Amino acid sequence: MRNSLWFALSGFVALAAATPAAADGAPKVFADCSDCPEMVVVPAGTFKMGAEGGEEGRPEGPIRDIAIARPFALGSHEVTVDQFERFATETGYQAVGDCRSWVASTTSVELIPGSDFHKPSPDTELHGTLPVTCVAWSGAKAYVAWLSARTGQSYRLPTEAEWEYAARAGSSAAYPWGGKAEDGCAYANLYDEAGRKPELTSPVVACNDGHIKASPVKSLKPNAFGLYDMIGNVWEWTQDCYVAPYPAAAPKDGSAYELSGPCPRRSVRGGSWMTAAFRDRAAWRGRDPEEQESWIFGFRIARDLSPSEAK
Asked: pTM of the prediction?
């Protein structure tokens, strides 16, 4: 894993939105069936997306004004292994190929023969409420198509704008909890003292979230919108085709940016439990091929709301 290049940032601006609330003031939470993912209603609002600066060759700007006109629903947490297992069992889902995973003995990322979302590497087995990983963008798309057919609702991947809007949850800082990564261990599973790997040269965050690897979803505190693990734990696929810098023609209504032809790379967001802190910021943009399966890549889902549900 490469070291991050650190650059000064400026231009973070607050969102103009309020936390969605149920009658008791808490975020509005629902599920479409007993074993469906838990969803949180995210309010309509406006915000400034992106940041000035970024890593070399990976600009995070120019900063754009985004207006999300209607509320939407977002998974309260990343899709879990058990939730993905139900889909895989019912549909006969087959992985695209071998998963890319970290191998400590060689201090490198390698394709692991025979790996899958249950066993991304010989020394790691995933189960239960751990976030599912080793799922390509196409696999995440297959999951939301299955869930839509199962429930009759419009499930999908979140757009990049929706993701950043929800991750910030009213924050104007580099991280949703403030300007310093080390203040985040109550909210995010970061590359910190607990997960320190002597073979990596990336600096650890100076705090301890208590998790050596990926943590079960909802292990830490939610953000102001009632969403868990938006930062850290595992990277999350979004719908958008990645282009940097943001093109002038990019949508400003919260919808996804797509190309008319094939998309070389899709945007991934949020960082992971072993990602350098600079890449865990709300504005940082990852980009990877649609068919890539990785031990630190997962996803969460979005759902469109009817007018009555959005009230």
From this structure: 0.91
